[in-house]
Amino acid sequence: MKRILIVKLTSLGDMVFTQPLVADLQRAFPGVKIDWIADAYCADVPRWNPNIERVISAPLRGFKKKRSWAGLREIFRALRELRREKYDAVLDVHGVYKSAIVSFLARTRHRYGYPVEELGESGARFAYNHIFAPYIEADSSRQRMRRAVSRAFGFELSDEMDYGLVMPPDTPALADKGPYAMLFHATSSEEKKWPVADWISVGNAIAARGLRVLVPWGNEAERKEAETIAAGVPGAEVMPRLSITGVAQMTGKASLVVGMDTGFVHIADALRRPTVILFTTTSRHLYGVSAPGRAVSLGGHGDIPTRAAVLAAIDEVMGVQPPVASLH
């Protein structure tokens, strides 16, 4: 096995989940070169992994929004780049039409994909001539991907998930003003949110521990909510709008990251930062993380984390010992 293409186009969190595949494959096939194809908006994630040989990006989401000739030209450029190499195997670990089309267009005799019942779009099945074994119910989402590939190629998985991410060194100046915590309050939908009043309460508790509280945002609605949270926390700052890489660099130097089940919080975990992830409607079993003393996941499937549970989790990941109960 000399060269493998991983097809994972989106989204930010899923791109992070998939990174351990790179280390798995390089352990199994020493010297193998790994290429990756991704949507342009989140292609920075595989670019942070120095063990990936080539990252091919195409503005698929941007083209869907704007339908511009420039975007179409960029997609064709990416396809030409894709076909520049011949692959021993193409692994579609995304499982939708567009990832299947990319897999089908790649130069290879061996295209791997999920069984129909595990595909995001069942029609994607047309692209594959090798099918991964069905997933094991008890596995997390990222472990399912790893196990699918290891079973397909007959190698044993390491217990460690090696994400391999290395941030560019030119971190925004905001990181140099003293230790800080980041509160990732924003989510992709309203039902996934945690109440603003709870964010303010937790922000105050964090500030009382001596950390600056930074509140990031990505659009105008998130900025307004960030301003509301920051206004209720002494010394808190609404972060300037940064690129994906800029926010990830800040995340990589944070003393604490608390946030919803979103991509940047999973980046924090991958970078081994003290991390607390909050789940409301999504599955903690599938997407949660657990690293005793460093990363804690709370809630999920309608179980909304309480302020007290979040504060206890913050103490755990920051190494604060709970008070000893009195014997009297």
TrEMBL record:
EC number(s) given by UniProt: 2.4.99.23
InterPro entries hit by this protein: Glyco_trans_9, LipoPS_heptosylTferase-I, LPS_LOS_Heptosyltrfase
GO molecular function per UniProt: ADP-heptose-lipopolysaccharide heptosyltransferase activity
Pfam families with a match to the protein in the record: Glyco_transf_9
Keyword list, A-Z: Cell inner membrane, Cell membrane, Glycosyltransferase, Lipopolysaccharide biosynthesis, Membrane, Transferase
A biological-process GO annotation: lipopolysaccharide core region biosynthetic process
Enzyme class: transferase
Membrane-topology annotation of the record: Peripheral membrane protein
GO cellular component terms, semicolon-separated: cytosol; plasma membrane
Pathway: Bacterial outer membrane biogenesis; LPS core biosynthesis
Catalytic activity: an alpha-Kdo-(2->4)-alpha-Kdo-(2->6)-lipid A + ADP-L-glycero-beta-D-manno-heptose = an L-alpha-D-Hep-(1->5)-[alpha-Kdo-(2->4)]-alpha-Kdo-(2->6)-lipid A + ADP + H(+)
Domain of life of the organism encoding this protein: Bacteria
Family: Belongs to the glycosyltransferase 9 family.
Name recorded for this polypeptide: Lipopolysaccharide heptosyltransferase 1
Species annotation: Cupriavidus oxalaticus
